[in-house]
Amino acid sequence: MKVLVACGGDSPERAVSLRSGKAVAEALAVAGHQVFLEDLPTCLGVVEAARDRGADLVFVALHGGWGEDGRLQAVLEAHGIPYTGSGPESCMAAMDKELTRAVFLDRGLPVPPGKVYEREDAALPDLESLMAREGGHLALKPCCCGSTVGVSLVHRPEDLREARDLALKYDDRLVAERFIPGRELTVAVFEEGGRPRALPAIEIRPHEGFYDYRNKYTSGATEYLCPAPLEEALAARVGSLAEAAHRALGCRVYSRVDFRLSEEGEPFLLEVNTAPGMTGTSLVPKAGAAVGWSFPQVTDRIVRASLEVCRGRR
Description:
Blueprint: E1 2-8, H1 14-30, E2 34-40, H2 43-53, E3 57-60, H3 71-78, H4 88-95, H5 97-106, E4 114-118, H6 124-133, E5 138-142, E6 152-154, H7 160-170, E7 173-178, E8 182-192, E9 195-198, E10 202-206, H8 213-217, E11 222-225, H9 232-248, E12 254-262, E13 267-273, H10 283-290, H11 295-313
Parallel strand pairs: 1-2, 1-3
Antiparallel strand pairs: 4-7, 5-6, 5-7, 8-9, 8-10, 8-12, 10-11, 12-13
């Protein structure tokens, strides 16, 4: 198959996207595909590159911005070009943490208590009041960023201003959620026969601080346990919640679902990634390895399943 691997873009996650694109291109080549790796600046640039290369499919290795928020997916569909992963509506909902929270709450899925603020409404007294109500610890995040860009954990009221300003540097809305003390988990979901299947959960243990951008993409900065050391019933529950989150947002082919597991053993959904990282330290390849899939096999599954889904829409 001729596969155009689209990466780069202009979002704050550009550097990660370039690393994902390179790793995916190498893996697909090992799997026997003819691969074209392109650093592309616009949606129409992806369309033109796909046509110029005669690509059968575009592997979306773009993170954040127009590559992951549904705009690229809508443009590719309009031009009849198959691509990997979820459709425009699902990508938009997953990229926007406010929409994600609304969908999960509507479906009765557990999320940390919190509130979404517009830029003009994110006054410090309001954030301080929320912090007091939620136990004195908050996570502040831009609504529409991934890779933990712009995220802060706040444990003192005097640190709220800096955390608020950092989140609003990347978006005009922020999510302020109760920080859940406990463990960090993530679950890759792959569809088989159109039904989501959760792979074994991964526990994420940074050696210092929380799982921020540096700990995600610095080799050796974080310990990953896969499968996560969970009791059988809890592992099943986490997997079931990951599948439910994938379905709730209407995701296709594959996704990655992030959790906090409280000290009492209660899982809370954080977000769903429709174009998760595919670098040498990324989590979807680690989850695949836990069920015997090599990285080339993971990427091959994604492109073949995605092409089948796209052809089925025509």
